[in-house]
Amino acid sequence: MPAAVALGGLALWELLVRTGAVGPLWFPPPTRIVARLGELSASGELARHLGATLGRLLPGVVLGGVPGLLLGLSMGMSTRLRTVVDPFVAALHPVPKLAILPLVMVLVGIGETSKVLLVAIAAFFPMVINAMAGVRQISPLYFEVAENYGARRPQVLRRVVLPATLPLALSGLRLALNSGFGATIGSEIVTARDGLGAMMWLAWEVLRVPDIYAALVVICIIGVGFNKLVLLLLSRLAPWQPERHKAP
Amino acid sequence: MSARTAPLPWTGFRCRGVSVRYDGRNGGLAALEDVSFAVEDGEFVCVVGPSGCGKTTLLKVVAGLLRPDSGEVVFAGGRPRNALVFQEHGVFPWMNVLDNVAFGLEMQGVGRRERRERAFAFIESVGLGGFARSWPHELSVGMRQRVGIARAFVSDVDLLLLDEPFGSLDAQTRRVLQEDLLRLWRDHRKLVVFVTHDIEEAVLLGDRVLVMSGRPGRVLEDIPIPLVRPRGTSPREESAAREIRWHIWRRLEGDVRRDLAIAG
Q1: What percentage of residues in chain A have a pLDDT greater than 90?
Q2: SS3 for B149?
Q3: Which of A233, B60, B101, B109 could pair with B66 in a Cys bridge, judged by C-beta atoms 3.0 to 4.6 Å apart?
Q4: CA of A43 vs chain B CAs: smallest distance (Å)
Q5: Which residues of A touch B137 (CB under 8 A)?
Q6: Which string of DSSP letters, residue by residue, matches B160-193?
Q7: How many CA atoms are closer than 13 Å to the CA of A85, on its beta-carbon side?
């Protein structure tokens, strides 16, 4: 059904451009965009940009996501830590991550480090918040059962906290990937010479409009791919969840 | 047949003047007030009272999960291994039936292979063998509750504390699980404290029924149930049981009505 809607929309678009109702300069027909994607793939240019983008995004997400996960779990388990750290998370999380790129560049220079660091910061917050929420939503009953059967702290962590937190932590990963993706593209538009963001910016500068669309298509595909990947992980790692609790 | 005939390690305990208050915005809430009673070896004791009378609190105190503000629970030979069975949701949703049932053994350090064998043998004996690999959400509420009870029995505990374990079951399922529980209790000889708000259930299951008042919970009466087991098999027994149930209801009615009036 969504595929049919998409195909219909694309067909309409194509038709409007072909009949001259819409100018092909700003709205190149879908067939043109697809052709351009083919050219960019064949020349290796697309792979270069895509590689650069993923080369910033994935290390950044790991670099921010892992500490975010650990901090979130700790904050979920320790009221004292949460009391101290939560206000800072609450204050810093809503800041648009691109807004701190200048500061990050001042601190670590304009090279790759600044971009990866920005992605890490963007990935960090959703991970913290979701991991913390994941621990806090665990019913106290499960802790009582574990304690009643003599579970010690490491056992409670391994047999209760981690499995119970997993679904929300994975949805944190999903948000971290999306948020990190935004930071990657944004920083590439601002400063980079390669990457999908840079590709779009260069295309705008020389008015190669089909390239802008081509890059957007790739960004969409990657985004959808990440979501699918996380859902796959969820069904593999948390097969115990009833269907209705799974994200659509 | 009485469970008291066999020689057992003494697992009885005594509650002495146990009081618990919960801190709250309105100066706190007295959950239990000066609760005293003694439980003997191998007994099946039912605690009955209006909802919110601190029955769950009492179980947590006996289990050692909650420290009373005053009073104490004294066990003959130190607090024995005990298992709490909750009304619902006590089964871990992220473990399959087998791992859930084996959880107590796992925490005791029993090796993976042995605990799985023992857990499997047990769930097979209670008719859950085909569901060893199922997730809890795939089971009915009644089956989940069976898993919770199986976990308690497999774990070699001396004291079983059940908190309205059948409260959310339909009447027929409850009936079957009550019979299951009695059979397990007869075979395994554990001391059982069974909390319920269902007077009929208390009289059907217990050697004794402790009647508790509305909040703050106090023990109003300690009633021995002199009916032979299995119960509910002769008309004469049934009329005796009815009389006991009537008596308990007369003790509770005032508190129940009072709580309803406050709530309304």
Answers
A1: 89
A2: helix
A3: B60
A4: 49
A5: 240-242
A6: EEEESTTTTS-HHHHHHHHHHHHHHHHHH--EEE
A7: 17
